[in-house]
Each structure stands twice: as C-alpha cells, then as structure tokens.
Amino acid sequence: MVKHDFEVQTKWQGGREEVGTVTGDVISEHISIPAPLGGNGTGTNPDELLVSAASSCYIISLAATLERAKFTNIKLTIKTIGTALFENGKFKMDKITHYPSITVSSDEKSTLEKRLPKLLTIADNNCMISNSIRNNVTIDIQSTIE
Predict the structure, then answer these.
(1) Are the CB atoms for 57 and 129 separated by under 8 Å?
(2) Do 68 and 29 lie in a common domain?
(3) Shared domain check, 64 and 39
(4) Residues 8 and 80 reside in one and the same domain
(5) 126: which of 26, 62, 65, 100 lies 20 to 30 Å off by Cα?
C-alpha cells in the first residue's frame, strides 16, 4: 500500500462576506463564497475546487489510459460541469459531467472509436477523485473524438 499526504493550509477571519486563503505546495488562492450564492465572489471557492480536482484528475487519468492503450499522438481537452443542489437545507454537489474531446490521427480514429467506452471507464476507475466521490456524486462522461 502506498500512502501520501496532501497538505493545505486555509485561513479565514470574519463572517461569510469575507475572503480567506488556501495555500498548498503549489496552489495559493483567495477563497470566498461564490457571488451567485450570495457571497463575495473573490478568488475561487470549494465548489469550483472540487470540480477542478475532478476534471484535472480525470484528464490525467484518461491521458495515462490512452497512452497505455498505445494511442501515441493524442490531444485532450475537457470541459467539466459540476451541478450543485440545495435540498433539505443543505448544499450538495449532485453531479459532475466531463466532456472530454480527444483528437487523434486519422489512422487511429476508428480503433479509438471501438475501444473508447472501455477506456473511458478505465480512466474513471483509476481517477482518485472519482473514486473518492463515487456513490455521493453522479459522474457522467460525454466524449467526442476529433
């Protein structure tokens, strides 16, 4: 078993209208409640960070999966949408939908089309964030090949 700790330090002073910070090995951002939810809207927020974590984890996992499947000349872009709900007096991330777009050479396109559904699932199953939120958040993947 491999174990690794990821450490961040978060600071906040005051009430809900204030701005805090989150700092890690690389990240250093202001945080606040999003403006559409009645907050300050400065910097990022936990919801955006969760969706960003899911998106970046999935694209890295998909790149590794495609590489192991011998697709060598690929370009990936991904749009990810996180849908939050307010129910029973609580906010909750309900669904995260990834829209990966995969560009491959024309000679690899038909092979990728046949194998893609399985490769998308493998990538999702190898993504730490997907594995961490599965059964609490629905994860949907809608891919396109270019």
Answers:
(1) yes
(2) no
(3) no
(4) no
(5) 26
Domain count, the chain: 2
Tokens 């990966």 label which residue? 100
Q: Is the pTM of this model over 0.70?
A: yes
Write out pLDDT tens, residues 83-139.
999 999 998 999 999 999 999 999 999 999 999 999 999 999 999 999 999 999 999
Of residues 121, 17, 25, 90, the one with CA closest to residue 9: 25
Give tens-digit pLDDT for 4-36: 999 999 999 999 999 999 999 999 999 999 999
Instruction: State which residues form the domain around 114.
Output: 46-145
Q: Do 34 and 93 sit in the same domain of this protein?
A: no
Q: How far is CA 111 from CA 44, 71, 135, in A?
A: 40, 9, 32
